[in-house]
Amino acid sequence: MSQDEIPHHAGPGRMVIAPALDEIDRQIIEALGRDGRLSIRALAEQVHISRANAYARVERLTSTDTITGFTVTVDPLKLGLATSAYVTLSLRQSSWRTLREQLQAIPEIKHMALVGGDFDAILLVRAADNEGLRRVVLEKLQAIPEVLGTRTALIFEDLGTL
Questions:
Q1: CA 27, CA 46: separation in Å to the nearest integer?
Q2: Reported pTM
Q3: Which of 118, 127, 121 is nearest to 102 (CA)?
Q4: How far is CA 15 from the centre of its chain?
Q5: 39: which residues sit within 8 A by CB, 6+ positions away?
Q6: How far apart, in whole angstroms, are the C-alpha atoms of residue 111 and residue 109?
Q7: For the chain, what is the HEC assignment?
Q8: Which residues pair with 88 in a beta bridge?
Q9: Looking at the predicted structure, is the pLDDT value of residue 97 above 90?
């Protein structure tokens, strides 16, 4: 392990070596988080470094999987997805790995996370309407044997990332 790497615990028996990030790296990540389409030239100007330095840093951040991808943010209403909800799941404790593949096969699920607390997983579900949401929860999710129970919280207004 070099001085440019920092060990982090990632769960029982798991250690992840993360690259050390300086203030410029953090500024690059923040700028790309706001606009993943920034050119290297514009990025370099924003963080006050040379284009070569910006290119090298972005390359290092992607090759070390610090930056894992670039994405687009869309307005779900303009995609015809007028109903959104967070759905929490209570699961059979040993079922997360097999359940993950089943959840990935449901296109209305846009995000999923394994969590601790009163439930085991939380899903962001986007559907065309309430009927579509009902189908996902009652016909798809509750039909999975590993799902012991669900709770649904409708999203009235999506404020996005704060």
A1: 9
A2: 0.76
A3: 121
A4: 21
A5: none
A6: 6
A7: CCCCEEEEECCCCCEEEEECCCHHHHHHHHHHHHCCCCCHHHHHHHHCCCHHHHHHHHHHHHHCCCCCCCCCCCCHHHHCCCEEEEEEEEECCCCHHHHHHHHHCCCCEEEEEECCCCCCEEEEEEECCHHHHHHHHHHHHCCCCCEEEEEEEECCCCCCCC
A8: 122, 151
A9: no
